[in-house]
Each structure stands twice: as C-alpha cells, then as structure tokens.
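[worker-b] picked up task from shared queue
[worker-b] task type: protein-ligand structure
[worker-b] ligand name resolved to 2-oxoglutaric acid; SMILES cross-checked against name lookup, match
[worker-b] sequence length check passed
[worker-b] input payload:
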Amino acid sequence: MLNAEQRQAFDRDGYLLFQQQLSETDRKTLIDRAYALIEQAELDPSHRFSTTDRAQINNDFFLGSAETVRCFFEEAAFNDAGELTQPRAQSINKIGHALHDLDEVYRELAQRDVFAEIARDLGQQKPSLYQTMVIFKQPRIGGEVVWHQDASFFYTEPSSVLTYWFALEDATLENGCLWLDPGGQTGPLRERFYRHGDELTMVALDDTPWPTDTGTAMPVKAGDLLVFHGHLPHYSAANRSTQSRMALTFHVVDGALPYATENWLQRPTLGEFFM
Ligand SMILES: O=C(O)CCC(=O)C(=O)O
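[worker-b] inference finished, payload out:
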C-alpha cells in the first residue's frame, strides 16, 4: 500500500497524511454513533478528563475504561456551582477506550484491511489495536492536550506504537488542530506513564524540551487520516471557537513484541485485537 516515497517521508518526518480515508457516510455514521453513546451513558460529574491537570481524573473510572466504553467530561464543562454550562452532548471531552471491541460501528472501521496494511508497511508484524478514542474538542470549552509522545503510554521495546488520527470534522487553527514536531520522532522518549496496581505516575526520562515554539500546525480536512510514530511529539490547543473538532484515534502496537505490564491500559479480559 505505501510506496517508497511515503516510507521515506515517514522515516524523515515521523508522520504521513492520507487524504480522504473516511467517506462522508463513514463520518456521519461514526459521529451519530458517538452522540448516541453519550445519550445512553450514565454520567457523573467526577468522570472528567484533562491532560493539564491529571488530578482531575478519577483513577478507578479511567482504569476501568480500558475494557469498556466510557464518556469523560471536559474539565471546563462545569461552573462553580457544579452545573453544566453547555448541553451534555457538548460537554464531553472523549469516549474511550474499547470502542473497537464493543461497538459494531467502530469495530467495522478498525477491521478494514487498509489500516492494518499501513501498520505492516510501517514495520509492525502483528498490528494490535489497544485503544480507540473519540475526541470531541468541544466548542468554547475543548481542553488543550499538552505536548506528549504516545510511546509514553504504549511502551514496547523496541518502540512500536503508531497513532491513527482521523479527522471526523475539519480541524483548523481556530478549533484546535493537531501540532506535530516533524523529525522529532528521532529524539528520545521524554517521559513514561507507569501503572503500579491502581497507581498511575508520569516519570521524566529525558529533559529534551518540548517543541513549544517550533511545532508545525496540521490543519486537515474532515475525512483525512494522520498516522504518526510513537516518539513524535504532538499537541493540540484549547478550542475557544464555536466549531467542534471531532477526531477518532487508534493506538496500534506490534503484537509480536511484549507489551509492558506497566502500561496503564491492560486488556486481561478482551485480549489482543489484531487488525
Ligand atoms: O486529538 C487531540 O487533540 C490529541 C490526540 C492525541 O494526542 C492522541 O490521540 O495521542
């Protein structure tokens, strides 16, 4: 599927852009299903997600989401009185993390040959999908995602995780498109997110600075797919615009390698999901 030029570009830049990998029908089906999942969910104000303040995250709820489908509120969804400031469908930060196992709409997408082929062409022997997230980046309150590398969360030796980032809607500078650090995947892993029992800690490994002033904005069209290397630093700004920026992500590791038992996301019941 990938030609020599694309492989070289991935080695050089750490990412590839595949235009229009989702049809309009795909996007509508995925978006409608995400909102139906919010409708059905039992929501509790303590179920929040934030990358700027991890203390806001309810550990039990988060850890339990590894093998099921849960909705997480935006940290800015509530006012001082603890009330939602926007309708609940516009207050959710993300849905995760086993949509590809448990939801037929998301499972069908994850099983399309094209996505496994990309992973194989980028060096994986047995592409294994660990995590699926629908990230809403809601109008006005969509939170910032701080600079990070996904291998911090999906650690294998050697590093193998690939991130698939599907734009379900146009992603622009105004609504919080991704920022990448092209070439930055050749640098070290800066931190690692460890799980010991039910305790989660982010441990610094290397003090190489994040590319806060040198990152490259990646505005993309609805339907486009970005695939990037697990060491590629990436970021997205808060959304203060009136447009949402829905995205769908897959985190895919090479199932031929041992998956670290200290990674937060473990799948003792579901097992591996080979693509
Ligand atoms: O969609 C975003 O804004 C960030 C997504 C991300 O960082 C990830 O999936 O690793």
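[worker-b] attaching auto-annotations
[worker-b] The mean pLDDT is 96.
[worker-b] releasing lock
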